[in-house]
Amino acid sequence: MACDVEAEELYKEYPSGVIAVRGISFKAGRGRTCLMGPNGSGKTTTLSMIAGALRPTKGIVRVCGYDVWGDGWLTARKLIGYAPQRMPFRDRLSGFDNLVWYGLLRGLGLIEARRRARRLAEELGLEGYLGRSVASYSGGMRRRLTIAAALMGEPEVLILDEPSSGLDPKGREELWRVIEVVLKDLTIIYSSHMAVEAEAHSDYVYIFHQGRIAASGTPQDLVKKHAPKPKVLIYVGEKVPPLEVEGLKPYVVGAGVYMYSVDNPKEAIKIIADSYLARGFAVERIEIRRPGLEEVFLSVTGRKLEV
């Protein structure tokens, strides 16, 4: 049975007077829920409040029905695994010793902690690195070790703060391949400032902006509802004039490069290309540009998604 996470009117004001989160409410169930937004939009603060690491100024967080900051706090926190951006490992110790230490902190006996550490290392592709000091780990290995440490208590909910931060595209894909295989039955809530990552690896997305939720939905629904139409770009010679094609007006992108906003790009490609060819104009290249969550962010906030 899925373990749901519910947040009601979360609000966080720091002693400095900075308001990081302004009345956020949302629900996440089994699968991958992404909090997407630029740095400083309130994602990390929200995850910290859900995980029990930062007390909200106002609001309620429930995990499997238990209040994280109320009477059910002990039960709730046993159900949570939290992987912050920087897990406080002891870098001189081996990865294995660090995992065992986190197991002991979770209340496990030494034998059980060692057993879980070996199993998680195998599942997350760390078995060949367990004997090495954490100081020698690459960024990708350290991220995997962070996730393994968060899983030592066998949680129902896994919270990942920017899990692929600092990794190159190949490292991000390798990490997500592991996450999606090993953690498919958990409730996963993660944050990301990358629209491409949120679109590829989320079942549901909450778009954060200035401490509030600007929009939410599946990636597909968000694009359908908020993003502009797909674009078809046609590249022709510099002397070729732009053509209006069956009511589709061209936008000049550059010399001999024209763009059309369309509903069905696959159909539009042929119609647009045929129109130029019928006039005797050579078509050098034609391409489709489909909108994504980056365009959704711009649409709902009026700003570009910047890191």
Q: What number is the mean pLDDT?
A: 93
Calculate the terminal CA-CA distance, rounded to whole Å.
36 Å
Q: Largest sheet, if any?
A: 6 strands, mixed
The strand order across the widest sheet is 6-7-8-3-9-10
**How many beta-strand runs?**
14
Strand content: 25-35%
> What is the CATH level 1 assignment of the largest domain?
Alpha Beta
Sequence of secondary-structure elements: EEEHEEHEHHHEHEHEEHEEEHEH
Note poorly predicted spans: none
- What is the CATH homology-level superfamily of the largest domain? P-loop containing nucleotide triphosphate hydrolases
What is the alpha-carbon Rg in Å? 24 Å
Structural class by sheet pairing and helices: alpha/beta
Report the CATH architecture of the largest domain: 3-Layer(aba) Sandwich
Q: Any idea how many domains? A: 2
Helix content: 25-40%
Shape type: elongated
Number of helices: 10
What is the subunit arrangement here? single chain
CATH topology (level 3) name of the largest domain: Rossmann fold
Architecture overview:
The structure is a single chain. This protein has 307 residues and is α/β, with parallel strands linked by helices. It folds into 2 domains: 5-225, P-loop containing nucleotide triphosphate hydrolases (Rossmann fold); 229-290, Alpha-Beta Plaits. It has helices at residues 43-51, 73-78, 95-105, 110-123, 139-150, 169-182, 195-200, 219-226, 265-278, 293-301; strands spanning 5-13, 19-28, 31-36, 58-63, 66-67, 80-83, 157-160, 187-192, 204-209, 212-217, 231-236, 251-254, 257-261, 283-289. The strands form 3 sheets. A 6-stranded mixed beta sheet has the order 6-7-8-3-9-10, with helices on both faces. The protein has a 4-stranded antiparallel beta sheet with strand order 2-1-4-5. The protein is elongated.
